[in-house]
Amino acid sequence: MMQNENFAYFDEGAKKEIRRATLKAVAIPGYQVPFASREVPIGRGWGTGGLQLTLSLIGKEDILKVIDQGADESVNAVSIKKFVQKTTNVRCTEETSEATLIQSRHRIPEVPLTKEQIIVLQVPEPEPLRDIEKSERKTKALHAEEEYSGAWLKLFEQIMMHGSMTTDADHPVLVNGRYVMAPSPIPRFDNKKMNQSDALILLGAGREKKIYAVPPYTDVQSLAFEDYTFRVENFFGRSCRLCGSTNTFLDELIEEETKKLYYQCNDTSYCMSLLNEHDPIDALPKEKEVLKHV
């Protein structure tokens, strides 16, 4: 830990304010709680909300995992990990099952989370009605009145134009039968992981100064129509070319030399764990090949 610095960077007053907002968010699932977003040494839009939640919650006994778009090794993930470790001296890991606190951008890990874990998701735009209504005052009124026809209309327009709902990521969800929530820019594939999750899910938007939450064992339903049901991304039976997995979220990549299309697990840690299980002796070269394409 850095000398002459507060544990986890923030002073205790700042941590308490963020924790109070977090407790309110947990008490009202899906509700966006305003908080006094602080300056942290990363650019806004790159995870300041998630980082503030992490710094306010982390303790000396915690084990931290940081991922960015499924990878532990991306520049953003490594930078955040180094900063938190430098100000706390906590142990970091790449194994999802080992971590007590997980900070993530754009993904929920493939390994099922447990009741002993907290996952913090970074959110660029927390308001699911922002495309319909630009006024913050009016969106608050719409939430208070449970007036979500605009969100439904947006999905209906997609069906009329394309024949199906075309939300690529951040597909809106209904939390605890009350609030429509933006689940951060996670793919539709991850929405189901929020429903009745064993782990506490916290979402932070630093630029927009909002915190919201999905407590453990809370109903989370993706918005859909009876005749146009919600569907996750379809990989048409394709598998990861490294570990052979067919039930994970896959990245579509192009081989530079041959220009051929191939698929690879987005969650690199999960992919490496499968490689180690299947072929522990020869796993290291394969792991390097995974990282090369991240």
From TrEMBL:
Pfam families named in the record: PhnJ
Q: Name one GO molecular function term.
A: 4 iron, 4 sulfur cluster binding
- List, alphabetically, the InterPro entries matched: PhnJ
Q: Which domain of life is it from?
A: Bacteria
Q: Some GO term, biological process aspect, for this entry: which one?
A: organic phosphonate catabolic process
Q: What is this protein called?
A: Alpha-D-ribose 1-methylphosphonate 5-phosphate C-P-lyase PhnJ
Organism, per UniProt?
Answer: Candidatus Pseudogracilibacillus intestinigallinarum
